[in-house]
Automatic annotation (TrEMBL):
One of its GO terms (molecular function) is DNA binding. This is XRE family transcriptional regulator. It holds the Pfam family HTH_3. SUPFAM superfamilies: lambda repressor-like DNA-binding domains.
Amino acid sequence: MEQMASARSTGAIDRHVGIRIRLRRRILQMSSQTLAAKLGVTLQQVERYENGASRIGAAGLFSLACTLKVPVGYFFEGFDPALKR
């Protein structure tokens, strides 16, 4: 049976989501500082999300989707499930 990754570890999906966050933020011409303020997190936290260094919980992902005006599924578009780690 496959072992579950630690809640603290990040992987390919986290990097993919981070890339999608950065892409959408830039399309909207929004600074990472502005995004951080809208989400109520630090600039450093937004940077960690965008770099895939921090995993985003369901509530955070929903807030990001609302703030960036995209459906939650947007963050997973183009992800290859074979790369899950």
